[in-house]
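fold description:
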Amino acid sequence: MPAGPTVTTAANPAAVSVGTSGNQLVASSATRRYLLIQNNGTADLYIAPGNSVTVANAIKLVSGAAYELLSESGMAGFEWTGRTSSGTADTRIITGVA
């Protein structure tokens, strides 16, 4: 069985404050094999792959929810952007590389 990805930030997740305009959560990475985005705030967080996110085209993460991507999805290495519809969301990011 092949070894799993090396988690690079599990002990110290990156904190990103996300507001009503699109904020980059992670840049694209050809070596990233794992990505976890958690809404640690009270405002709803909307996330989408790429550099543009709207409430209409996004995945909604309510307070406390998380979105996990593995390399098998083909999307773990994409750039991800987030925003709120109002207020700010305290976001946590954990990544892993092969």
